[in-house]
C-alpha cells in the first residue's frame, strides 16, 4: 500500500519524524520486514542528517566501550565493573551485523563510505589512574568481546602507538595506554543519507524535507493524526498514520509531550551543548591515527570525556579534540531558545527541580566550561598534544544533546545518561530520547522499538530479523563461538581488515 494524498490530508502505515540515523534505521528495518507498508518521513531542515547525525555534530566513535572509560567505573572496593561495557560493546556488534547485511545485499554499495577502521585507545597519567587502567585492562581482556586489547606503560611503545601524543612530552611522567585495533570511526551522516536514499528509491516510501511536524493526536478512529507544515509552501496538512516514530533528536521530547500518552508524563529533558577544537594543520593531522580517550572531570556528563579524535569524513582525515561542554536552552542545534522553558510542565517540574538540586557537580562543571578562555581550552588540549599551538586549531560547535529526566519515588527525579525508548501501551507510537552511545547502537535500539510496538508481528518477522542480525535473540557474551564468527564476518564484509 503506497502513500495516498487527497487534498490536504494523506495517510500512511508508518510516519517517521526526523531525518536522522534513528528514523533511517527503523525505516530500513521496516522496509525489509514489511515492504507493502507505506512510510512517510518528515524532516524540518533542508536535508536529512543535518542535526545530531551530522559528522561534525558527533564524535563518530563506534561506541563499543573499547576506549570510553565512563563505561567501566571503579567501585569502592577497587574492582572495575565491566558490565555496562559488555552491554555497550554487544549493542555495537548488533549494529555491525545490520550494516554488514546492508553491504551484503547491496543496499550500501561500499561500507567504507561510512565506516573506517581506527584504533581505539584509553590514555591516563598518574599512579592512581594507571592502576585503574591496568585493572580495567585485566578485566576486559578476559572477555571475548574485547579480544586483542593491548596494554602498555612503555614510553617507546606509546610513541609508536600515538606519536603526536608522545611528541615533546616531558620524560618521567607515569603513563598508561590500552589499544584495540578493532575500533572504528563512523560517519553517521553518510550512513543516514545512504539509508534514506534506499528508502526514497522505493514507491512505498516518501521523504519530505522542509516539513515540520507541529502536533500529533490519537483520534477515535484509532489513527494518529499528525499535523505537518510545509515550510516551503507555508501550507499545512494532516497525515493519518497507524504507527508513529518520533526520532527528531532533542526535538523528540516536545512532540512526545504533545502526544498525550501516559508514558510521557513526568519526562523532562536537560540540554547539553558541545564544542571541539579542530586542527587546521594537515601536517599535524597526518601524525595521528587513533581515537585516544582520557578520563572525564568530576561531574562531567558522559559525552564530555576528553578525546583526541581521528575522523574520516567524506574520505578526508580530520583531527578533533574535545568536547568542551556548554549549556543552551535549545534542544536542537538549529532549535529555539524557548525549547527548554516550553518543555517544563506540571508533570515534570518536580523531577527537574529535584535533579537540579542533586546535580550540583554537573552544574558547576557546565559553568566552568562555559566560562573557559581559549588559553584554558588549549591547556586541556596540551594534556594530549604537549606542543599544541593555538594557530593550528579552531573552535567549532558540535550538536545538541538532551539528557532524559524522569520521576523517581525516592529522589523526586533522576538525570539519565544514555538512550531510552518511550512507547505507548498499545504500541502505536514510540519516541527515542537521550544521547550517548546513541547512533552507535541505532540497530539494537530500533529492534527494541520493533519488539515494543509490533509484538504480534515478531514471530512472522523472526526469520528475516535473523537474516539481518544473525545474533538476534541471543547474547554474544554467552556464545563465544558465535561472537568470534560474527565479528570476523562483519570485519570482512565491512572492509575493516586494513588499518
TrEMBL record:
Gene3D superfamilies: D-Amino Acid Oxidase, subunit A, domain 2, FAD/NAD(P)-binding domain
EC nos: 1.1.5.4
Domain of life: Bacteria
Gene Ontology biological process: tricarboxylic acid cycle
Coiled coil location: none
EC main group: oxidoreductase
GO molecular function, one term: (S)-2-hydroxyglutarate dehydrogenase activity
Keywords for this protein: FAD, Flavoprotein, Oxidoreductase, Tricarboxylic acid cycle
Cofactor: FAD
Pfam families listed in its UniProt record: Mqo (PF06039)
Catalytic activity: (S)-malate + a quinone = a quinol + oxaloacetate
NCBIfam families, sorted: mal_quin_oxido, PRK05257.1-1, PRK05257.1-3, PRK05257.1-4, PRK05257.2-1, PRK05257.2-4, PRK05257.2-5, PRK05257.3-1
Family that this chain belongs to: Belongs to the MQO family.
Protein name, entry field: Probable malate:quinone oxidoreductase
Organism phylogeny: Bacteria, Pseudomonadati, Pseudomonadota, Alphaproteobacteria, Acetobacterales
Amino acid at each position: 500500500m503506497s502513500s495516498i494524498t487527497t487534498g490536504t490530508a494523506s495517510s500512511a502505515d508508518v510516519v517517521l519524524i526526523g531525518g536522522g540515523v534513528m528514523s533511517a534505521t527503523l525505516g530500513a528495518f521496516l522496509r525489509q520486514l514489511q515492504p507493502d507498508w507505506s512510510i512517510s518521513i518528515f524532516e524540518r531542515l533542508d536535508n536529512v542528517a543535518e542535526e545530531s547525525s551530522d559528522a561534525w555534530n558527533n564524535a563518530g566513535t563506534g561506541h563499543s566501550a573499547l576506549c570510553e572509560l565512563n563505561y567501566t567505573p571503579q567501585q569502592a572496593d577497587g574492582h572495575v565493573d565491566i558490565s555496562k561495557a559488555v552491554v555497550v560493546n554487544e549493542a555495537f556488534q548488533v549494529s555491525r551485523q545490520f550494516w554488514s547485511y546492508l553491504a551484503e545485499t547491496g543496499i550500501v554499495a561500499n561500507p567504507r563510505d561510512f565506516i573506517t577502521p581506527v584504533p581505539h585507545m584509553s590514555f591516563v597519567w598518574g599512579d592512581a589512574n594507571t592502576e585503574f587502567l591496568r585493572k580495567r585492562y585485566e578485566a576486559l581482556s578476559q572477555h571475548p568481546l574485547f579480544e586483542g586489547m593491548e596494554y602498555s606503560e612503555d614510553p617507546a611503545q606509546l610513541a609508536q602507538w600515538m606519536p603526536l601524543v608522545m611528541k615533546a612530552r616531558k620524560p618521567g611522567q607515569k603513563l598508561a595506554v590500552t589499544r584495540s585495533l578493532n575500533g572504528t570511526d563512523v560517519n553517521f551522516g553518510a550512513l543516514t543519507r545512504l539509508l534514506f536514499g534506499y528508502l526514497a528509491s522505493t514507491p512505498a516510501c516518501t521523504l519530505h524535507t522542509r516539513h515540520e511536524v507541529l502536533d500529533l493526536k490519537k483520534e477515535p478512529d484509532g489513527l494518529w493524526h499528525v499535523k505537518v507544515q510545509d515550510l516551503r509552501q507555508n501550507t499545512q496538512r494532516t497525515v493519518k498514520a497507524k504507527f508513529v516514530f518520533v526520532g527528531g533528536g532533542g526535538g523528540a521530547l516536545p512532540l512526545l509531550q504533545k502526544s498525550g500518552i501516559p508514558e510521557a508524563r513526568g519526562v523532562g529533558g536537560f540540554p547539553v551543548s558541545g564544542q571541539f577544537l579542530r586542527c587546521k594543520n594537515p601536517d599535524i593531522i597526518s601524525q595521528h591515527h587513533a581515537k585516544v580517550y582520557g578520563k572525564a572531570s568530576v561531574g562531567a556528563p558522559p559525552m564530555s570525556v576528553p578525546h583526541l579524535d581521528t575522523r574520516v569524513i567524506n574520505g578526508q582525515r580530520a583531527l578533533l579534540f574535545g568536547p568542551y561542554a556548554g549549556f543552551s536552552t535549545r534542544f536542537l542545534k538549529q532549535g529555539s531558545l524557548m525549547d527548554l522553558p516550553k518543555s517544563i510542565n506540571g508533570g515534570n517540574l518536580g523531577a527537574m527541580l529535584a535533579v537540579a538540586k542533586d546535580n550540583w557537580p554537573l552544574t558547576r562543571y557546565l559553568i566552568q566550561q562555559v566560562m573557559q578562555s581559549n588559553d584554558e581550552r588549549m591547556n586541556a588540549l596540551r594534556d594530549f598534544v604537549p606542543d599544541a599551538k593555538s594557530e593550528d586549531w579552531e573552535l567549532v560547535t558540535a550538536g545538541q544533546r538532551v539528557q532524559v529526566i524522569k520521576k523517581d519515588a525516592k529522589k523526586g527525579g533522576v538525570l539519565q545518561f544514555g538512550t531510552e525508548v518511550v512507547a505507548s501501551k498499545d504500541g502505536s507510537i514510540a519516541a527515542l530520547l537521550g544521547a550517548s552511545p546513541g547512533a552507535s547502537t541505532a540497530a539494537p535500539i530500533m529492534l527494541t522499538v520493533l519488539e515494543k510496538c509490533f509484538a504480534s508481528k515478531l514471530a512472522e518477522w523472526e526469520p528475516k530479523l535473523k537474516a539481518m542480525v544473525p545474533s538476534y535473540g541471543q547474547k554474544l557474551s554467552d556464545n563465544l563461538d558465535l561472537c568470534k564468527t560474527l565479528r570476523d564476518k562483519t570485519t570482512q564484509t565491512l572492509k575493516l581488515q586494513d588499518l
